[in-house]
Amino acid sequence: RSPRRNSIEESYVDGVSITHGKNPRKHIWTYAIGLTEINDYPHDCPCNSPNPGPSPPAFVGSDYHCESGLYSAPWSTDGAMYADDVMWDGKRCDGDEGPCCNKTGLPWFCKELSQPTTDDLEVRFCANEDSDKENAAVEFMDLYIGQ
């Protein structure tokens, strides 16, 4: 997650935010991107061990999954896409990132809302820098909604 961005109304994560409603949005799930799998950077995943990144905002709680597509520094600043390690699939979680992939059901998540809603769902791609420095590609996304 990106430090100092703690409002659901802001681009609070480098990754994907899934919410419903507006004014305020209500959090469903977050797919976060950590900077590296094995280094101790302030932008690494909060589930990394023994060198965790910052905790997610309170409204996210434990309703997130975080991975990095980059094993370690140095990283490119020329708009490179690190596609060798697919994000959020629960695989190739090496080094400090290992605990991030211990969640049951990955790459899927299941979230029961506190009450039924007819709100629209919103999927936002969030980043705090331009795409030549931070870029993520999503090949497909399936959302299954039930009662």
Figure out the total of helices.
0
Mean pLDDT: 84
Cα shape:
globular
Low-confidence stretches: none
User: Topology as H/E string?
Assistant: EEEE
Helix content: under 10%
Structural class assignment = mainly beta
Strand order of the largest sheet: 3-2-1-4
Strand content: 15-25%
Number of strands: 4
Rg? 15 Å
Largest sheet: 4 strands, mixed
Question: First CA to last CA: what distance?
Answer: 31 Å
Descriptors for this entry?
147 residues; mainly beta; 4 strands; 16% strand
Give a written overview of the molecule:
There is one protein chain. This protein has 147 residues and is mainly β. It is 0% helix and 16% strand. It has no helices and 4 strands. It has a 4-stranded mixed sheet, with no helix packed on it. Strand 1 and strand 2 form a beta hairpin.
Strand-helix topology:
Layout: E1 15-20, E2 26-33, E3 64-67, E4 121-126
In a nutshell, what does this entry contain?
With 147 residues, this protein is an all-beta fold. It contains no helices and 4 strands.
